TrEMBL record:
Record InterPro entries: Gfo/Idh/MocA-like_OxRdtase_N, Gfo/Idh/MocA_Oxidoreductase, GFO_IDH_MocA-like_dom, NAD(P)-bd_dom_sf
Entry's Gene Ontology molecular function annotations: nucleotide binding
Gene3D superfamilies: Dihydrodipicolinate Reductase, domain 2 (3.30.360.10), NAD(P)-binding Rossmann-like Domain (3.40.50.720)
Species for this entry: Hungatella hathewayi
Annotated signal sequence range: none
SUPFAM superfamilies recorded: Glyceraldehyde-3-phosphate dehydrogenase-like, C-terminal domain, NAD(P)-binding Rossmann-fold domains
A Pfam family recorded for this sequence: GFO_IDH_MocA
UniProt name for this protein: Gfo/Idh/MocA family oxidoreductase
Residues annotated as domain Gfo/Idh/MocA-like oxidoreductase N-terminal: 2-118
Residue span(s) of domain GFO/IDH/MocA-like oxidoreductase: 127-271
Length: 359
């Protein structure tokens, strides 16, 4: 059994490191850039490399990791499914609801194992949180809220592919980081978002650029190159869930000092719990009148460990030759549902925050 990787960018390196740590042999790397493919192959001792996707369709390659911009996902994954390859795809699964529906259906029909890279759920505290919410002692879920904050796109900010609407689509904060929050919110709570109202913050639609770095002003006239930015820097979303629970989430890629902060709080009828990624090995729970219990995972995991845990879970089913009854890894069906939520947020934001029902 050998694995291939499609795309040789930054996230592909993370996939390769996780594969290497899990003892999975990488047999091929394909990228649009021959130079990048060659360098990647040399770094990870990969036998076959190049720009031709047929390298990945060889019979010895049973599984392919799709690590390209999302505008390419649909066509790439469909080609791989046509050749009965198992697929681990970067998020989002694709742009269009209909395409996401087709990919999920096709993966099931082909009988292959397919997953989306939502790795956050593999923090030990997140796995424990899910079990607590499932227990009778937690009771009905009533409130779900949190945020995902980063500083990566605060000024000065690099111009990269995420600002190209052809490659990344019309959204950024929602699809880049919001998808991870939506995954853990639904996975841990066991509830599905059924309606939402979203407002997007597009704070600087016209920006100045110098040496591929964006600024909010011209720097007293020394910066003359400009760029138009259509995607959101931040989003505030109200949520309604399938059991009557309500919630909110704030997403921001322009919050200085927040390198990678995810928070989630789930309030049940009998118990409350909350977690954040900056203290990722601590899970807080409480019942009324009894204070707060903070469980510390002394032999806990870190961000990179979550990638390896996802890979291990996914490849357990790959080796088994079928999707298990209740996989821990996020499937294409979950990826499909989150594509629909993202598009509902865009529809709502474009309509001044109107409520949108998600089918």
């Amino acid at each position: 059994m050998k694995t291939g990787i499609w795309g040789a960018g930054n996230i592909a390196h993370t996939h390769a490191e996780a594969l290497k740590a899990s003892g999975i042999l990488i047999g091929a790397i394909v990228d649009v850039s021959e130079e990048k493919a060659k360098a990647f192959a040399e770094e990870f001792s990969i036998e076959k490399w190049g720009t031709d996707s047929s390298i990945l369709l060889d019979d010895e390659i049973t599984t392919v990791h799709v690590c390209t911009p999302p505008n390419l996902h649909y066509d790439m994954v469909m080609e791989l499914l046509d050749h009965k390859k198992n697929v681990l795809c970067e998020k989002p699964l694709c742009f269009e609801d209909s395409q996401a529906e087709e990919l999920a259906r096709r993966a099931k029909e082909c009988g292959v194992v397919c997953a989306i890279n939502f790795n956050v759920r593999f923090h030990m505290a997140c796995q424990k949180a899910r079990k607590l919410v499932e227990s009778e002692e937690f009771g009905r879920v009533n409130v779900i809220h949190g945020n995902y904050l980063q500083e990566f796109n605060a000024f000065p900010a690099p111009v990269d592919w995420r600002y190209n609407t052809v490659l990344a689509g019309r959204m950024r904060a929602v699809t880049e980081i919001g998808t991870h929050w939506l995954d853990i919110a639904q996975y841990i709570s066991g509830r599905k978002v059924k309606a939402l109202s979203a407002n997007f913050g597009r704070f600087y639609p016209n920006r100045y650029v110098e040496d591929r770095i964006m600024y909010p002003d011209s720097g007293d006239g020394k910066r003359t190159e400009t760029i138009e930015v259509c995607s959101e820097d931040a989003a505030a979303i109200n949520l309604k869930f399938d059991n009557g629970a309500i919630g909110t989430v704030l997403l921001s890629e322009v919050s200085q000092g927040r390198i990678n902060r995810i928070t989630l709080e789930v309030t049940g009828e009998k118990k409350n719990l909350w977690w954040n990624s900056e203290d990722n090995n601590i899970l807080n729970t409480a019942v009324k009148g009894s204070g707060v219990n903070s469980e510390i995972f002394g032999f806990g995991n870190g961000f990179m460990d979550t990638f390896r845990s996802l890979v291990d879970s996914f490849y357990d089913d790959v080796k088994r030759g079928c999707v298990s009854e209740a996989p821990v890894y996020p499937t294409f069906f979950e990826g499909r549902d989150i594509v629909k939520l993202c598009n509902a947020m865009l529809e709502s934001a474009d309509s001044d925050g109107k409520w949108v029902v998600v089918e």
